């Protein structure tokens, strides 16, 4: 059984009292006025801060940062205001008018070691909405039936508010840090990060240089009211876009032509859609299936264990691939996403185009896959054009780092019985530019969420259960204090 909320509260209260005593000893200058006097509440009451964080999250949801256009500076300024009230200075750097990054730092001393620093990061922008499909105002910050609804409630303003709560809790307690803790809010994550993380890394590395980072990308998975497992993202697939272009002779639609590009493109896409790249496991996915086998039902667990064996591998691959997420973790994938052809219903067009969104396993080159698709399509009227907007592959974060071990250990206490497993996300995150700079970055949205709630991300009625949000804030705070505060 998972730990009950009352147990969590007791545990938290205990830790808070210990931490508040420690805080009072080390940082008397930072004791806020309301915490003085005999009846003062514990300064590090992270539960209280999680209540405040819920309000910050509501406020952030109400600031529409749909990307495009983003306009994230409004949200960045809001965050700057919250930090300022705590006496924490922050800096906003604009990448382009109205967009950019916010950085703040809690310093360990005059000569901090950037290779030890911990970066808490989250993005300010959100994907757009189809308002007609929502049951509440997506930018209303509505709390209903125990859920906070709104675009960004999970992705990624929830994490932003949790980071903010943790950062502020460190400040309020005057925590004796053993490394710098940097707070970063970035723009443009949902559209390739050119105006956010890429800008931050290229132009302001001195402000965010770190050895470790906590970001979105992994999750705490909730099933039947109990945390099933904690998925820590340590690697991610690499996106690439390819256009499939069919050309033929334009003409009057009343005289059908065998070289009609619409017909050729449709046939090509059908073949591409049926293609399955071979299964390839890596360090992260091997450990993922090994760990998950322990919490899945006996049958699924059995096939997860068999996936890397020589005798039953083929059958195991077929069974595991029935789960679409696992299927996408096991191989390079190709999703046709856009079609474009014709200008009149009675005109055969000279060209028809399709867009393929490809997700490569890290380390796999694109060219052989495109060559394979060309081969399958086998049509001289079709050509493939690789688009220049692909991403770079980064090395995985190690599963041996102090931060990884701290997350696993804290999760054991916070969610007893639920194993931690490393994950490779099929989507990309802003961790890639960090991993390319040897940062050990881990993705972990700390809120326990069901598959159904996770499915609402980027979809309609995105929402976070209020209790899960609170639990997540406490979990994140405990990870960060275990890692960055001298015990
Ligand atoms: Zn996100």
The shape, in one word, is globular
Structural class: alpha+beta
CATH class designation of the largest domain: Alpha Beta
Taken together, the total number of domains comes to: 3
Mean pLDDT: 91
Q: N-to-C terminal Cα separation, in Å? A: 29 Å
Give a count of the beta strands, DSSP E runs of length 2 or more: 17
**Bound chemical compounds:** zinc ion
Strand content: 15-25%
**Estimated radius of gyration:** 25 Å
Put the structure in a nutshell.
This protein has 487 residues and is α+β, with helices and mostly antiparallel strands.
Task: Describe it.
The protein has 487 residues and is α+β, with helices and mostly antiparallel strands. The chain folds into three domains: 320 residues, Aminopeptidase; 96 residues, Alpha-Beta Plaits; 47 residues, no CATH class. Helices cover 37% and strands 23% of the residues. It contains 16 helices and 17 strands. Strands 1, 2, 3, 6, 7, 8, 15 and 16 form an eight-stranded mixed beta sheet that branches. Helix 2 runs antiparallel to helix 4. The protein is globular and about 80 Å long. The two termini are 29 Å apart. The site of zinc ion has 5 residues, from loops.
